[in-house]
Write a structure and sequence with these properties.
single chain, flat
């Protein structure tokens, strides 16, 4: 995405809103080379950061709760950045604030800097705590580092809690402060083992308050991923024995209900996969833990998800024989069965593929799983096409046609398998498969339109109305039918408009009537009838002032 054309890559509505926000962008500056920061006033002040690479926009972020790709605040900031860069400076460029800071630090005397830091931290206990944590190797204390971090985490949580709950607006600020705490840990000179302990301390703190945080923006998950990154950095620096201990601790976290109840349990999956990559002992430990949880969850979606996870692990670790054994044992899971079906198709062993499909259909029928039945029918259709087996193609298509509410797609596929002289009878038979109740008129109408059987379509549509459905069907097909039956269709359409207006009032009703009158006006010779209806409505319903004004505005006084 480029500064010259970024509008093309942003949702048009968001971009329009962003243009309306350009005057709300404040303190926009390039604080580091090609790194821009700004404040944008919205519901409250939001912080925007944008990273450029030449004219390419490589990264962006905003503290607003918008969960799409680019929000209006970023869009507004990009517009302002482009404008600033297009204006040629008349004087030498002003150093960025970061450059100014470097100049100050390079020239400031040590005692002056120390005095200013003391003054700065004098009234800011929170910043003082972080400062001492950052440099605690220089100023050691008798209190364990993990205890200090836990106290700071608890203090941050209390600060943003209202009645023991952190709402959506405060959740972002809370997460920012905890992230600062993690950044302090990352930059500290603590030993890797101590950092690991602190990571678990903060992770447990997050799990402990997860139920009392509105995490609509996924802030807690982001914090857990920061913890994961810190553990990934610490792991290779640990002795082998401590690596094994860390693996087991992370594995325990993977299945800890305190995390799984809030969707935080998958954070460490990538670490476990990677750490176990070259250790069959760790792999078996992981698989045993998975098996234990699989066995504790009888036939439900969570059990299937764990089995899929096991299969992916075996694939990642290139344990292909074990992977096939797991898939064979659990053929009731459609994805597993499909693996063997595809394998048979690739080997052109179509008899075996069909046998697997028939067993799958039988099992799905027992489970009353219509979606899986349809899936296997589609696979059977693939094989029929591969073998150019016309009778089998028709059998599968007819089944899919009936189980997919008589879809036009399968109807057309069926038609393509018949010679023209055979299609007339086949078509009548397929039409007859649609159930008799008029609730299926929509399916019937669709097929009649497809065959351009306008007389039959008209006979179907003009039958006595089912409240709601037949009226809507008539409106849908009226423009088409009006070509062949202009007088009848216009009269019926006009009658429906009159009945609707007689029984309903309100601006929304009048807007709908205007829309319907416009449809009527587009029918052959329908403009005059629509004009007469407008005139009649204005005379008959004089007391409906809003209606009269809206009709005149739409169609004129005429």
């Amino acid at each position: 995405m480029n500064l010259d054309n970024f509008e093309q890559h942003i949702n048009a509505v968001i971009m329009q809103r962003g243009r309306g926000y350009t005057q709300r962008v404040h303190n926009l500056e390039e604080t580091e080379p090609e790194f821009w920061q700004a404040e944008v006033n919205g519901t409250r002040a939001y912080d925007v950061e944008i990273q450029l690479d030449g004219k390419e926009i490589s990264e962006w972020s905003c503290t607003c709760p918008y969960d799409g790709d680019i929000c209006k605040h970023v869009a507004a900031s990009l517009l302002n950045i482009r404008q600033q860069l297009r204006v040629k400076p008349t004087s030498p460029a002003q150093p960025t604030k970061r450059q100014q800071l470097d100049q100050v630090l390079n020239t400031l005397k040590r005692e002056d800097l120390a005095a200013y830091i003391r003054q700065l931290l004098h009234d800011d206990r929170k910043m003082l705590d972080k400062f001492l944590l950052r440099f605690q190797v220089v100023t050691p204390t008798t209190e364990a580092p993990s205890k200090q971090y836990q106290q700071l985490f608890d203090k941050i949580a209390r600060q943003y809690s209202s009645y023991d709950y952190i709402d959506e607006d405060d959740a972002s600020a809370f997460a920012d402060e905890v992230q600062e705490l993690l950044d302090t840990l990352s930059a500290s000179n603590l030993a890797s083992a101590a950092k690991v302990e602190i990571c678990f301390t903060i992770a447990q703190g997050i799990a402990g308050i997860a139920n009392n945080v509105d995490d609509s923006n996924g802030e807690l998950n982001s914090l857990m991923y920061s913890i994961k990154d810190e553990l990934a950095t610490a792991y290779p620096q640990l002795p082998t024995s401590e690596q094994a201990t860390l693996f087991k601790r992370v594995l325990a976290t993977q299945f800890d209900s305190r995390y799984s109840e809030y969707g935080l349990e998958d954070t460490f999956t990538e670490l476990l996969e990677e750490w176990a990559q070259h250790s069959q002992t760790d792999q078996n430990t992981y698989l045993q833990a998975l098996d234990k949880h699989i066995q504790s969850r009888p036939n439900d979606w969570q059990r299937d998800a764990l089995l899929r996870q096991k299969l992916e692990l075996l694939k990642t670790w290139n344990r292909l024989d074990d992977m096939e054994a797991v898939a064979t044992t659990h053929m009731e899971i459609p994805d597993f069965r499909d693996t063997f079906i595809q394998k048979a198709i690739d080997a052109k062993d179509y008899d075996k593929a069909r046998s697997l499909l028939q067993d799958g259909i039988h099992l799905a029928e027992q489970q009353k799983n219509a979606g899986t039945i349809s899936r296997w029918r589609k696979r059977s259709l693939e094989i029929a096409y591969l073998q150019n087996d016309i009778p089998a193609i028709r059998t599968e298509l007819e089944h899919l046609y009936q189980t997919s509410h008589y879809s036009l797609e399968h109807y057309r596929e069926l038609k393509a398998t018949y010679p023209a002289e055979e299609w007339v009878n086949a078509r009548q038979r397929l039409y007859g498969l649609i159930p008799v109740p008029r609730g299926y008129d929509s399916a019937r109408a669709m097929l009649l339109q497809e065959e351009n059987d306008i007389p039959a379509l008209y006979e179907l549509i003009k039958q006595p109305t089912i409240p709601g459905q037949s009226a809507s069907l008539f409106k849908r097909y009226a423009p088409l039918l009006a070509i062949a039956f202009p007088h009848e269709v216009k009269a019926t359409y006009a009658s429906q408009i009159c009945d609707y207006l007689r029984d309903n009032t309100g601006r929304a009703v009048y807007e709908r009537v205007i829309d319907e009158l416009n449809v009527l006006a587009k029918m052959p010779d329908g403009a005059n009838m629509a004009h007469n209806l407008v005139k009649d409505f204005c005379n008959r319903y004089k007391s409906r002032k809003a209606m009269v004004e809206m009709l005149i505005a739409a169609f004129g006084k005429g």
